[in-house]
Write a structure and sequence with these properties.
8 helices; Rossmann fold; 12 strands; 2 domains; Arc Repressor Mutant, subunit A; four-stranded antiparallel β-sheet; alpha/beta; five-stranded parallel β-sheet
Length: about 230
Amino acid sequence: MQNRVLLIEDDDELRALLARYLDSQGFTVREAANGRDGLALALAQDCDIVVLDIMLPDISGLDVLRELRGQAHLPVILLTARGDETDRIVGFEVGADDYIPKPCNPRELVARLQALLRRIAWDQKNEVDAARTYGDLRVEPDQRRIYQNDTPLDLTATEYEVLQVLLARAGSVVRKTDLMQWALGRRLEAYDRTLDMHISNLRKKLGNDDPPRIETVRGLGYSYRVPVS
């Protein structure tokens, strides 16, 4: 599992604290104190995952994420203000994979990083080269890409995970607790809307079908409905 982390955070004390803890846990840490420097480092592809603060002194973390998503698919964990759901929603819409509210516990950050990196590494090790087709969607595991009518969907690492789990069980209900564990690598907690936000983004990217091809099964979870051509 690769463990090169880019930490983009303008609070010198917090950045130093997190960097020391990440280093003690076996991560190789690159640091940036502003958005421009962080974006340049991220685009240089000298990291495997990005931890990105939303509040930065030059450009916002959301703007950094927008520019990054236009050129790269690195997994990104946002650091957001506690209780600010608007930032989290916008962050997921722009392309974040996960978020942690500040002030964050360094142990939780490490757990989130490890879960996301472990999931990606496991998929890359166990993926079968053969493509799989579900109606107008085609999963190319070796590329970690999903195509719709031969056009690649612009998915984050986590959106890819969520959709490929649903596709593999198309027509069946996947419980939210299972989907959270399989796709995000962590337990579903009360009031955690992370999974709901990813599902909402996927519906938009798939074309907002009516009825939606990702159906909500109230009280249980989600089911992917293969459209009839």
